[in-house]
Design goal:
Helix content is 48%, strand content 14%. By secondary structure, the protein is an alpha/beta fold. It folds into 2 domains: 196 residues, NAD(P)-binding Rossmann-like Domain (Rossmann fold, 3-Layer(aba) Sandwich), CATH 3.40.50.720; 33 residues, no CATH class. A 7-stranded parallel β-sheet has the order 3-2-1-4-5-6-7, with helices on both faces. The chain is globular and about 45 Å long.
Length: 250
């Protein structure tokens, strides 16, 4: 049985990494994934590779007008949006005393303002239909991480946003939850080591040793957790955060 058959699932940052894997995972459950990404060509490639992939759309989620147009296009084409996965993100890591205002603004705008903008547009339609599943992709870094003041603050903010929306939107059949990954191999995490000159093999070995499952995370691990929150059967679970870190403690 395809639990999400016919459901339309918008995934921001859907052109690669966790976002692309989430699109594939939701498609397995019968959903029509609609990847939304600054990389329009990448979003289209992801959608085209799925048997029931939706329309890959290029969109800067920090731009209100672009978001409004994209959401209207989706609703016009499919008539509904059942699931929104707020996954888009960037990193601009630096020690606090070296962090520039540009570093701060870029990360906060993408993670927090972008999620706010997309969610506000999408939930207008969810409220009318009295159904919706919101999932925010946070991070273990929400609890604090050296060199990531901007990223940690943004991810913690997403958790607060998700809990507040769970309170406000529950009466409309909309749930709001969070998946907070630990160390996962993606293009973004590899890029961090390239910028810092670290050895990927050494870093991944060290992170594997920290996890009780003795390996680093894969995008599919996170996509599986996201998919749970997207199910109709998860309608009694809201305002929760799953720390998907490979360990019993975050």
């Amino acid at each position: 049985m395809l639990k999400l058959e016919g459901h339309v699932a918008v995934v921001t940052g859907g052109a690669q990494g966790i976002g692309a894997e989430t699109c594939a995972r939701l498609a397995q459950d019968g959903a029509i994934p609609v990847p939304l990404d600054l990389d329009e060509a990448g979003a289209r490639r992801v959608a085209a590779a799925l048997p029931n992939g939706g329309r890959g759309i290029g969109c800067d989620i920090t731009d209100q007008d672009q978001v409004s147009v994209a959401v209207e296009q989706i609703v016009e084409q499919y008539g509904r949006i059942d699931v929104l996965v707020n996954n888009a993100g960037v990193t601009r890591d630096a020690m606090f005393y070296k962090m520039t205002r540009e570093d701060w603004d870029k990360v906060i705008a993408t993670h927090l303002t972008g999620a706010f903008t997309v969610t506000q547009e999408v939930t207008k339609h969810m409220v009318r239909r009295a159904y919706g599943r919101l999932v925010f992709v946070s991070s273990r870094a929400a609890l604090g991480n050296r060199g990531q003041t901007n990223y940690s603050a943004a991810k913690a903010g997403l958790q607060g946003m998700a809990k507040t929306l769970a309170i406000e939107l529950g009466r409309y059949g909309i749930t709001s939850n969070v998946v907070a990954p630990g160390f996962v191999e993606t293009a973004m995490t590899r890029a961090i080591t390239e910028r810092t000159g670290q050895s990927w093999d050494e870093l991944s070995a060290a992170m594997s040793d920290r996890a009780t499952v003795k390996r680093i995370g894969r995008p599919a691990d996170i996509a599986g957790a996201i998919a749970y929150f997207c199910q109709p059967e998860a309608g009694f679970v809201t305002g929760q955060t799953i720390y998907a870190t490979g360990s019993p403690a975050a």
